[in-house]
Specification:
The chain is mostly helical. The protein has one domain: Lysozyme, CATH 1.10.530.10. The chain has nine helices and no strands. The longest helix is centred in the first third of the chain and has 21 residues. It is globular and about 40 Å long.
Length: 212
């Protein structure tokens, strides 16, 4: 166990070092994840989202998706908290075998790396876990960055394993796995389709910035 944790820590450090090399001009110290993450986000100027995939026009009559676009009740976290949150997400991704660029993209879309974020629907923390989901995942404190990141990334890993592809796994994270399983595809819900495209765009940005 200790050897595995050491490998994870070494991998996180390696990622930080690689990103640092991409952003020597960052205002924060170049070796800090805070400066690296800020530089990576700044260099990846938001552009138009890629076209939505063609989805089956299925009228489900379902209620609105469970995770609405982020609208947080808590003020934005300070830079240090966001740095710690981003590092926690990457470490969790490495532990659970999830692509770090994907996990980081989900956290960015969900909370902007704010560990104190609370959505209008009541989702909490970095990965915006609903209270029942957090409890089922064993997350005792959803505002603890490490616990929330571990639970959220573990849940994402479960969806990836269940559905076998990233778009459907992201849709399940956003709208619920039962809805995706019933339709067999990304549900024809505008918010969910936009969420999938947004996360994939963030992932592309992180890959281009050099996050492995």
């Amino acid at each position: 166990m200790l050897a595995r944790l050491s490998r994870v820590e070494a991998r996180v450090h390696e990622i930080q070092e690689r990103l640092s090399a991409l952003a020597p001009e960052a205002a924060a110290p170049s070796s800090s994840f805070e400066g690296v993450l800020a530089a990576a986000q700044a260099s990846a100027a938001p552009g138009p989202l890629p076209p939505a995939p063609v989805e089956a026009a299925i009228a489900t009559g379902d209620p609105p998706p469970l995770s609405p676009p982020p609208r947080w009740a808590e003020p934005a976290a300070d830079a240090h908290a966001e740095t710690q949150g981003a590092a926690a997400v990457i470490a969790a991704a490495l532990r659970h075998g999830v692509d770090p660029t994907l996990a980081a993209a989900v956290a960015r879309a969900e909370s902007g790396f704010n560990p104190r974020a609370v959505s209008a629907a009541g989702a909490q923390g970095l990965m915006q876990l609903m209270p029942d989901t957090a409890q089922a995942l064993g997350v005792a404190d959803p505002f603890d960055a490490v616990q929330n990141a571990d639970g959220g990334v573990r849940y994402l890993a479960e969806q990836l394993q269940r559905f076998g592809d990233v778009p459907r796994a992201l849709a399940a994270y956003n709208a619920g796995p039962s809805r995706v399983a019933r339709l067999g595809t990304v549900p024809p819900i505008p918010e969910t389709q936009h969420y999938v495209r947004r996360v994939l765009e963030y992932q592309r940005q992180y890959r281009e910035a050099g996050l492995p």
